[in-house]
Amino acid sequence: MQLVALTLSGAALLPVALASLYGESDLNHTCQLLPNYRSCSPKAQPNFTDSCCTETYGGLVLGTQFWDTYTGLESQGQKLPRDSWTLHGLWPDFCNGSYTQYCDLSRQYDPSPSPNTTTGTATGIPVPPYTGPNIGTFLKPFGKFDLLAYMNKYWISQGSPNSDFWGHEFSKHGTCYSTFDLPCYGPEYRKHEDVVDFFETAIMYYEQLPTWKWLAAKKIHPSNTTTYTLSDIQAALTAGFGAVPYIGCSGPRYNGTAAGNGTLDRGYTQISEVWYYHHVYGRVQRGHAVPVNASINGGSLGNCAKAPGAIHYYERAAGSVA
Known about the structure:
Elements: E1 2-3, E2 60-66, E3 86-93, E4 98-99, H1 145-154, H2 162-172, H3 193-207, H4 211-216, E5 227-228, H5 230-241, E6 246-253, E7 268-280, E8 289-292, E9 311-312
Parallel strand pairs: 1-4
Antiparallel strand pairs: 2-3, 2-7, 5-9, 6-7, 7-8
C-alpha cells in the first residue's frame, strides 16, 4: 500500500475531503437493474456505470486481521477471543495499490486521527479529532445489539477502547468506498445507516477468512517455545484463501537476534497481521469477492524474516483471553 492524495480516475490529486466522492444524486441507484462489474476492470469506472452499484473508487479490497497477545485494557474487560485472530478492518486500495484516507470529513468519528491530515503530510487538510458519542452508540437506534456484542468480541483494539478503533476504521477507510457513499442510500437515508452497513460488511469478509483455522489445519499453533518458517505459514494461508496474502510481522529483526546474528535477513520475527486482497463484483456489500495475490501490483508479500524457524507465533498473555 502506498499513500496518495485523494485521486479520481484520470484526474489530478485533489486536496479536499469531499462529502460525496463523485457528487452524484441520491436518486436512481437501483443496482438490480445493472450488471455487477468486477472492480478494477475496464467497465468499473464512474463514467460507465453507477458507482453505487459497482466499486469504482477503492477497487482493491483488503480484509485485514491482527494477532495480538494482549489489549492493555484487560482490567476494563476488553479481552481477546479464544482461538481466533481479530478483525482489523476492510480497506479500499486503489487498483494500482496506492490508497487515500479520511475521504469525507463530515463522517469523521475518529477520536485520534492517524495520520491527522487527509494526506498524511503537512499540506493535507487537518482531520479534527472526533469528540461526540462513541461510534458504538450509532448501532443502538437500529436495534443492532447483537452486532455490537460481536464487535466487542472480535473487533478488538490494543491500547484504546474498541469503539475508538471502530471509529478510526470507518472514518479513515470506510468513507473511501464508492458503494458506501451517502447518496447511495437514497433520499430516505437514516443517519449512520452507512456506518452500520460498513460494520456488517467488514464482519462478513472477516467471517470468510478464518486465519486461525487455516493455520491450525497445518499444525501451526500459537506457542512460546516453537518457532515457524514463513514459507509454511504462507503456504497454509494461501491454501485456505486461494491467493497469496500479505503477512506482517513485528518484534526484532532476525539479524538482530542471537539466531540470526551475522545473516542478511532483516525481516521481523513475530507474526502480527495478515492482509487478504480481493476484487469484488458489484457492491462491496454483496460479498462476491475474488481472491487476488497481494503482489498483484508488484508489491511486497510481507516484512517477515524468511530464514527457517525464524517466526514466533506467540501465545496470548495470561488473563488476556475472554
